[in-house]
């Protein structure tokens, strides 16, 4: 056994219980039986969504987690958590955890357990063989927004600077690429400006393509804490749970957001309801934007969005008259064929009305996964580590000097995007793929093409907590990973807050943290010396801190993990100066929660070279696949319940969460369509698109409009239907809209 591996496996034996097998869910949510009074507690942030709630983990005398409650002192969640948070420990003890590496045996065709040295040897032999035959760039990885920042950075550095890859990407492309590009172009840096306190301080909150009641329940609780009697507007084709709780639902036609936002901007100008002082002092190209907007008349906007003129007037009234307006968007915007310009149309509205940099305002993208924000800064895919540019020689040499490596090792262009990597596999330029903490075979758009693409790979490695995911089952080699709660590191939440996760549970069998796996791979590959300084997650954190210096995301004022822990999380930017200066009283959340809650741009200074935010805009384009006679309906997809997470690999392992969510795929269909198609409630129906089909139970409901249906993405057949269209700027897939038809099935 390699000495380092022995150490790792040994170190993992740490404080631990073997005789006491506890399933936290057994006790019900958060209740700890008296006989199991915990020996200690420790706080850490949740590893599901980007809200970043702090959970209080209760440990037995051996330091092993036995249950959790919530942290009442954390500014983010103030003692609240959604069902996934309460059940966060349960997936760790699932029976299908993968406990050893698995290698496909060519003789039997099965994945069979092997030891780590054999797995590493197979990894190196196959991947190096591919590179020798097809060139360095014939290897890629697809990773995630769900591992800690230190792991993402190590992976990105190892793959590009150590293993010679150029094109790597992650599921953040499916999710946040649009926000990343939109902010970068408009503000000069990928910088979501808000803090959660803004939910409480707005006079009007406008949610566009976001369903926080389901997807970000604790953020929604913060909205409910707003004492300003706010207008709450939900712009979504569906009457979602959030729309039902809102004061105004705006049920626009799918993918008509860009026209709507331009129409509103035009009406605001006509009404004189813009902040000319702010525009003049802090923005550029407004005049061009204003003249571009003239064609977006009230009539055209009403016609193309399907909204009555009164609704448009009401929306304009709200924006024009309320003092502090915040605009929030999520996947209904980001997952579209013109998503970057749509996100920027939201940014434009905030800029022209001066709704930025003040409490309760902002053009605010809500993030998805627990560490999508970390992957935007340190994924090393579209931006070089720390938000730098691969194409700039001075950026490459700066990063190389911090890492202590030769700048020539850094590629001089950004990665191809997820869809282009899969295309590359299809066309034969990429032959080896390493998939880390994502489940491509379920979550990728037009998913039916993936098995054929996989066949073209000479070697597929999947690194996951479970070998049962759709993607892991296709692998040549499975590397067993520790999950949240089994390792240390940092996650960055939607409001730019660095929060800490800790090892409170021993990973099963020989599973190792992703960090440890990357270190082993580096050594086995022969490039371990490049990462000698990355000796532990906290040592890596110190390197990332240095990479952040003088960048807008600087966090050099944070001394250690312990500092973050003690402070209740820390938002970037946080420089040495911030570390010394006390928080101004007016920026404190409340006397009970004295942590800092800070927003960006209070001085009107943006990160562009001229310090001005840019108005960016383009002509709207029709949906790539419009309904027609054969496929007359529009399919919308998204989250289904607060108890389900994506492809279900974690949340399906909890009895509690399974009880809280439907077990079978259902399709929301309007009563008018159900009547026309003679479909009864709960009847099994077939949804077809040009690419595939999915059977689902009919849920007849007026939450969807006639001509539209909705499917939750948590079931594996949904992406058989979706149409592969991509936004040209962010290359984010347009998961939310394609043409389908619904058919009755005679017999089940
Ligand atoms: N419970 C749970 N929570 C989660 C997740 C989960 O899987 N489960 N995933 C997390 C992740 S990674 C993400 S990215 C977020 C996603 O969070 P959200 O984006 O809030 O969730 P979605 O349901 O994907 O999409 C939001 C809404 O977009 C609407 N929509 C569809 N088409 C359009 C359109 O053309 N225009 C407009 N305006 N709206 C449209 C849909 O009807 C849907 O209600 O959730 C995070 N939180
Ligand atoms: N139709 C449709 N499709 C969609 C969407 C939609 O709205 N509609 N939304 C898209 C969006 S926004 C997203 S973010 C994607 C999500 O899609 P995926 O990323 O494919 O979904 P997950 O189920 O979160 O997959 C994460 C995997 O990581 C594993 N894992 C968890 N923790 C760890 C860890 O610490 N280490 C390792 N190695 N593995 C770990 C889990 O077991 C799981 O298999 O789906 C996208 N797909
Ligand atoms: S809202 Fe998000 S971060 Fe908070 S407990 Fe639920 S899943 Fe975890
Ligand atoms: Mo996401």
UniProtKB/TrEMBL annotation:
One GO cellular component term noted in the UniProt record for this chain: membrane
SUPFAM superfamilies: ADC-like, Formate dehydrogenase/DMSO reductase, domains 1-3
Keywords on record: 4Fe-4S, Iron, Iron-sulfur, Metal-binding
InterPro entries in UniProt: Asp_de-COase-like_dom_sf, MoPterin_dinucl-bd_dom, Mopterin_OxRdtase, Mopterin_OxRdtase_4Fe-4S_dom, Prok_molybdopt-oxidoreductase
Keyword Iron-sulfur annotated: yes
Residue stretches in coiled coil: none
GO MF entries: 4 iron, 4 sulfur cluster binding; metal ion binding; molybdopterin cofactor binding; oxidoreductase activity
Residues annotated as domain 4Fe-4S Mo/W bis-MGD-type: 39-96
GO term, biological process aspect, one: cellular respiration
Top-rank taxon: Bacteria
Record protein name field: Nitrate reductase
């Amino acid at each position: 056994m390699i000495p380092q591996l022995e150490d790792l496996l040994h170190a993992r034996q740490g404080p631990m219980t073997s005789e006491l097998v506890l399933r936290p869910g057994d006790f019900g949510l958060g209740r700890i039986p008296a006989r199991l009074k915990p020996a200690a507690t420790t706080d850490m942030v949740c590893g599901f969504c980007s809200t970043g709630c702090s959970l209080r983990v209760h440990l037995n005398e051996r330091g092993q987690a036995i249950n959790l409650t919530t942290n009442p002192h954390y500014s983010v969640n103030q003692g609240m958590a959604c069902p996934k948070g309460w059940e966060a420990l349960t997936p760790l003890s699932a029976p299908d955890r993968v406990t050893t590496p698995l290698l496909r045996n060519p003789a039997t065709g099965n994945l069979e357990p092997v030891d780590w040295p054999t797995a590493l040897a197979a990894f190196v032999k196959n991947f190096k063989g591919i590179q020798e035959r097809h060139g360095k760039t014939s290897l890629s990885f697809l990773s995630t927004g769900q591992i800690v920042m230190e792991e993402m950075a190590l992976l990105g550095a190892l793959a590009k600077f150590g293993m010679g890859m150029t094109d790597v990407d992650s599921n953040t492309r499916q999710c946040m690429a649009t926000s990343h590009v939109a902010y970068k172009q408009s503000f000069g840096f990928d910088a979501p400006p808000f803090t959660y306190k803004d939910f409480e301080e707005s006079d009007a909150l406008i949610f566009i393509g976001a369903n926080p009641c389901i997807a970000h329940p604790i953020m929604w609780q913060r909205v409910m804490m707003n004492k300003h009697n706010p207008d709450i507007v939900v712009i979504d084709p569906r009457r979602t749970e959030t729309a039902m709780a809102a004061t105004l639902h705006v049920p626009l036609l799918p993918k008509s957001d860009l026209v709507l936002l331009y129409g509103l901007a035009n009406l605001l100008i006509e009404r004189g309801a813009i902040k000319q002082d702010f525009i003049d002092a802090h923005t550029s190209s407004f005049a061009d934007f204003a003249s571009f907007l003239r064609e977006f008349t009230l009539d055209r906007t009403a016609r193309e969005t399907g909204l009555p003129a009164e609704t448009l007037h009401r929306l304009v009234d709200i924006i024009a008259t309320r003092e502090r307006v915040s605009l929030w968007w999520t996947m209904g915007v980001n997952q579209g064929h013109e998503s970057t310009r749509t996100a920027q149309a939201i940014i434009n509205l905030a800029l022209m009305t001066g709704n930025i940099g003040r409490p309760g305002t902002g053009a605010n993208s809500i993030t998805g996964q627990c560490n999508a924000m970390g992957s935007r800064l340190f994924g090393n895919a579209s931006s070089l580590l720390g938000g730098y540019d691969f194409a700039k020689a001075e950026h490459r040499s700066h990063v190389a000097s911090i890492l202590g490596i030769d700048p020539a090792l850094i590629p001089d262009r950004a990665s191809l995007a997820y869809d282009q990597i899969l295309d590359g596999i299809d066309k034969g330029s990429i032959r080896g793929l390493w998939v880390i903490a994502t489940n491509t075979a379920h979550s990728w758009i037009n998913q039916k093409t993936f098995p054929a693409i996989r066949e073209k790979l000479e070697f597929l490695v999947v690194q996951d907590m479970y070998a049962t995911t759709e993607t892991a089952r296709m692998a040549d080699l499975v590397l067993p990973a520790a999950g949240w709660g089994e390792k240390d590191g940092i996650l960055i939440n939607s409001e730019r807050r660095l929060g800490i996760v800790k090892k409170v549970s021993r990973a099963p069998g020989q599973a190792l943290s992703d960090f440890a796996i990357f270190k082993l791979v580096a050594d086995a590959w022969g490039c371990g010396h490049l990462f000698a300084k990355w000796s532990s997650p906290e040592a890596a954190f110190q390197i990332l801190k240095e990479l952040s210096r003088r960048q807008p995301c600087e966090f050099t004022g944070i001394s250690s993990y312990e500092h973050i822990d003690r402070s209740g999380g820390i938002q970037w930017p946080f420089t040495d100066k911030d570390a010394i200066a006390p928080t101004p009283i007016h920026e404190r959340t409340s006397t009970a929660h004295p942590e800092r809650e800070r927003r960006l741009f209070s001085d009107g200074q943006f990160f562009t070279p001229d310090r001005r935010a840019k108005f960016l805009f383009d002509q709207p384009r029709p949906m790539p696949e419009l309904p027609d006679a054969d496929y007359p309906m529009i399919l919308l997809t998204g989250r289904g319940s607060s108890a389900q997470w994506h492809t279900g690999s974690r949340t399906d392992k909890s009895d509690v969460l399974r009880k809280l969510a439907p077990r079978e795929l259902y399709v929301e269909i309007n009563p008018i369509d159900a009547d026309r198609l003679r479909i009864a409630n709960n009847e099994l129906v077939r949804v077809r698109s040009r690419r595939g089909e999915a059977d689902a139970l009919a849920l007849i409901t007026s939450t969807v409009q006639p001509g539209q249906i909705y499917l939750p993405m948590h079931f594996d057949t949904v992406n058989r239907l979706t149409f592969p269209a991509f936004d040209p700027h962010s290359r984010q897939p347009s998961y939310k809209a394609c043409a389908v038809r619904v058919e009755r099935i005679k017999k089940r």
